[in-house]
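Service request form, structural biology core

Requester: graduate student, group of Dr. S.
Request type: structure prediction, single chain
Budget code: on file
Notes: please return the result as structure tokens.

Sequence provided:
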Amino acid sequence: IKVRVPAASQYGNPVIRILAIGDAHDDSETPKDRFRWMGKLAADRGVDWIVDIGDFSTFDSLNAHIPNETLAGKSKSPFTRDIQSRIEARGAIQEGLGSHKPKKRQTRGNHERRVHIYEDQRPEVAGMLVSEMNQADADFGWEWADYGEFIFIGGVGFIHCPINRLNKTFGGENSPVQIGNRAVFDIAFGHDHLFRMHRVAKIGPSKHITILGLGCALPHGRVESYMLHGATTGWWFGCHVISIQGGQIIGNEAVSMLDLERMYG
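Core staff response, request fulfilled:
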């Protein structure tokens, strides 16, 4: 008797739709229009979830790579301004959503981690800055996973960037291949600001897994100053409406920032 094991997507599970937001790098100097546009897209597509993959805020006030005694360091904005900007950006998403109420999750990125590192190095303020960041998110219904942890939705793992066995983030031109070779489930990630989709054949009922790099949700063409001569970054600017069924990514609508502005600007 021949027994055919159906693929995971054939079990009749309902389709889950997610608006996935790559690294947005909000700061107090940048308008919040793109966040309202993404909220409107989520409402129009009727998504079940919104996932912010992390690095939603730059938190340049706590940038340890720029010493405070330097000229650049003395021009850093205060942490309170960074938090206020985060509140305004979360509020713009909420404004765009209108009456639509998807669940909202964030996988904390290395820029959110700056807040934790700052407190760890200054025990006298322990709990003060992190609690402000947490409250800014909780007030708009966001829940979160700590840096380096996965959020699973419909069997697909969302993370800012997977961590390898040396406790380093996967990186480089071939990072989706490296992640795919080691992963046992579909993954959506951010961090490198590149839009890449890599499918890997696997032994088992599902027959493959998909690794999706989300690009970034910065304003179109914005390249951060740390990239220096960054014209050749290959960064992609936009967000994604991902369809999940049976533990796998079965569809992805990549919506560029230019398209968002055309639709909602």
